[in-house]
Design goal:
By secondary structure, this protein is mainly alpha-helical. It has 15 helices and four strands. It has helices spanning about 5-25, 25-45, 65-75, 85-95, 110-115, 130-155, 175-195, 200-205, 210-215, 220-250, 260-285, 285-305, 315-320, 330-340, 345-374, and strands at about 55-60, 80-85, 100-105, 120-125. It has a four-stranded mixed beta sheet, sandwiched between helices. Helix 11 packs across helix 12 (about 285-305). The radius of gyration is 28 Å and the shape is elongated.
Length: about 375
């Protein structure tokens, strides 16, 4: 068979798959509508930033020092001091969920502070561990700042008090949106790359058209290529759309180059598409393929990639499992290209690992497809 005939055959199969994509409303739904919903959900609905936490103050001392400290908590941008009162009153409000913490300024606080001591009790609602951690940390920060100011005012020696300056690189406002939205793009590429391609061969099996397709003069790698190329382009278009929305609507900074983003996305799509084709060839059933893709690709991307939860905080056994999740190697370069810029020392090692996953998945897909057809 001549090269021109081979190219015409490949072109015809790619056009056939592209037309099938356009004719399938569910494919367009997953490729364009669901990504937009995800981006808006993670941009607007999911927020890991700490708002003003509602707290109460139990001021059991009437000294100037106690009043000054209470005023410092009321002026803090981290707290919404809703009420003051006795411990019993505040305890009831915390049980009811009206406040999430109680700052107790004990009796004799002013006297002990004048003598160089003084203590403050910080109570936080442990039913919400993250909020409790934030309240305790920020309350300690308010107390330390107030104490430093008092110590500076009382400095009789004439030496300036030591000051501390805190800076946050890359994300100075600590907006969780700036790393959640790039992570959502990883979820989008997983959906298009693995979830959609997990249906392509299974669909041919169920419709009884696979035997006719295999009667064409295409080799197995060429046949698989005709299946994945349209979905590769679809994923790139979807990713580009999500990136544009992230920067224009949500104000997520994009400090890297678009070429780097395309290369990173392409490196990830190789294992994503390969995994989808492997699942499709192995199951031969669209429903089963969808469930397997959700369990082996979508959920690991959300839970085990470092997108939402720090891998270092996971149990050791789970940390080892994350090495088998391709999206683990997508999240760092994807977030880096958005909020830091082009850092190829981060990109290249992760891209090479993704390419390695892709080779393994595609090799397995070719072998499984041959065996199933035989």
């Amino acid at each position: 068979m001549t090269l021109s005939v081979k190219l015409r055959c490949l072109n015809a199969m790619i056009i056939k798959e592209s037309v099938q994509i356009v004719r399938d409303p569910s494919t367009l739904l997953i490729a364009f509508i669901l990504p937009l919903l995800l981006i808006f959900m993670f941009g607007y609905c999911v927020n890991l930033d700490t708002p003003q936490s509602p707290i109460g103050i139990a001021q059991q001392d009437d000294s100037e020092a106690a009043k000054s400290l209470a005023a410092a908590f009321q002026a803090s941008k981290w707290f919404d001091v809703r009420t003051s009162g006795t411990m019993n009153e505040l305890s009831e409000k915390m049980v009811a969920g009206e406040i999430r913490g109680i700052i107790v300024i004990p009796d004799g606080f002013g006297r002990r502070t004048a003598g160089g001591g003084g203590d403050v009790l910080i109570l936080a609602d442990g039913s919400m561990p993250n909020t409790a951690s934030f309240i305790s940390a920020y309350a300690e920060g308010v107390r330390a700042t107030w104490e430093a100011a008092r110590t500076g005012n009382r400095n009789k020696v004439g030496l300036a008090p030591i000051s501390t300056t805190m800076r946050f690189w890359y994300n100075p406002e600590l907006k969780s949106r700036n790393f959640l939205v790039p992570g959502a793009i990883a979820v989008v590429m997983t959906m298009v790359g693995t979830l959609l391609t997990s249906l392509v061969i299974a669909r041919e099996w169920e419709r009884g058209t696979l035997e006719s397709i295999m009667a064409t003069p295409l080799t197995m790698p060429e046949f698989i290529a005709t299946k994945v190329i349209p979905y590769f382009l679809l994923a790139i278009i979807s990713m580009t759309l999500c990136t544009a929305i992230s920067s224009s609507i949500f104000g997520v900074p994009f400090r890297g180059s678009f070429i780097a983003l395309i290369l990173i996305a392409s490196a990830f799509l190789l294992p994503a598409l390969g995994q989808g084709i492997l699942i499709s060839a192995a199951t031969k059933n669209q429903f089963v393929a969808t469930q397997v893709a959700l369990l082996t690709a979508f959920l690991p991307t959300v839970l085990l990639s470092g997108f939402l939860f720090e891998i270092s905080s996971m149990p050791t056994a789970i940390q080892y499992i994350t090495f088998l999740v391709p999206s683990r190697y997508l999240i760092p370069p994807l977030q880096t290209v958005f909020i830091v810029g082009d850092d190829w020392s981060v990109f290249l090692p992760n891209m090479l690992k993704l390419l390695g996953f892709g080779v393994v998945f595609f090799a397995a897909a070719v072998r499984v497809t041959k065996r199933k057809i035989a």
